[in-house]
Amino acid sequence: MSRTAGLFTRAESRRRAGKLVLGLLSDLPRKNCWTIAEWAADRTPDGMQHLRGRAKWDADQVRDEVGDYVVEHLHDDKAVLVVDETGDVKKGTDTVGVRDSVGDLVGVVTAVAGGGWLIGGGAGSRRSGDAGVADRRQRRYGSRMDQDERLLHSSSFGAAAVAYAEHRPNYAQAAVRWALEPASGPRVLDLGAGTGKLSATLVALGAEVVAVEPDSAMLTQLRRSLPTVRALPGSAEAIPLPDASVDAVLAGNAMHWFDMAVAGPEIARVLAPGGILAGLWNVMDDDVEWVSELARVSGSAAIGPRDTPTSWRAETADLHIPTTGVPARFGSPEQEMFPHGQRRTADTLVATLATRAGVLVMPEQEQEATLGRIRAFLAGRPETARGEFTLPMQTGVLRVRRL
């Protein structure tokens, strides 16, 4: 840790990073913020989640220092180390989360689809003769969760479909208009449509909507609330539509779940030439003091880095790019934010946060503790303690055009 200590601006972040590293090197059977925090004798995982989600530190420089350290100690210019946060050994080409298809290191594991770092000591590395570190796109999911956790999170919503339909916000109409602005026609696919929050806005704007959703419980809620919308079972990786059948594909709070190595070509297939792909995210406006404090109290399982404007742009800027060597199917991204809000009470805001994937997958005791902490915070704030209030939000849009 002495090599990286100066890269953390706060002493607490340095100490927390040290605990995280020791936890990753421990013999814990499964390693994540919850288990490492418990192992480190922290009362809650909030500190670990804050370090990964909101703390200020030079992640790229820390990565490079770790890479240099590893290469200095490998003593083999052909060695490759694959590091990820799960604690699972990555070896060969068949381990979950590892693919062998890109890069210049022939005959070794050369891509980390599940995330992590690829560090090589030989001339095939990105920096000749030095530590080669996988492109950020290859690390994208590993810097947040392993593949198993990602699948668990993405499939967690069905059990809360009714609450999701009741409590999740719709999308700012100005944001949806901007997303569709370059589209050549009115045919729109709502991909990963959930219970139809985005579809409802699209219908209100006069679009010809078809919705595709993989979860049967969510699809049932969508069909119930929007009976005139054509709603089909399917996913971003297997879209049940013909070639060139839509002018735009929109995804509301869903694009981060897509495996773009598979979904990218599939989305491009159903889009007309020059068609638009846009991801939309409703985020809480942490420029407002009480919202920023709510994010801190809630922890990143409930309000993560992608859920606030402070880090939304960086978190979503490359989500349209495949994480492997598959050619990109879309052009340069554009990002915009649009004012939004949702009428809530303390109880209904707690209910909204309870539908977040990170909360849904918590063990019951931890979920109750998290929601209890949020409820106590809201009861103690003058902005939220009595009756209805407007939750300050923004809708962020990532827009790209099919090449």
Helix content: 25-40%
State the secondary-structure class. Answer: alpha/beta
Write out the strand line-up for the largest beta sheet, numbering strands in chain order: 5-4-3-6-7-9-8
In the residues, how many domains can be counted?
2
Shape category: globular
Percentage of residues in strands: 15-25%
Highest CATH level, the class of the largest domain = Alpha Beta
Rg over C-alpha atoms, rounded to the nearest angstrom: 22 Å
End-to-end C-alpha gap: 45 Å
According to CATH, the homologous superfamily of the largest domain is Vaccinia Virus protein VP39
CATH-defined architecture of the largest domain: 3-Layer(aba) Sandwich
CATH topology of the largest domain: the name is Rossmann fold
Give me the number of helical elements.
16
Mean pLDDT: 79
Question: What is the number of strand segments?
Answer: 9
| Poorly predicted runs | 84-158
Q: State the order of secondary-structure elements, H for helix, E for strand.
A: HHHHEEHHHHEHEHEEHEHHEHHHE
What's the story with the biggest beta sheet?
A: 7 strands, mixed
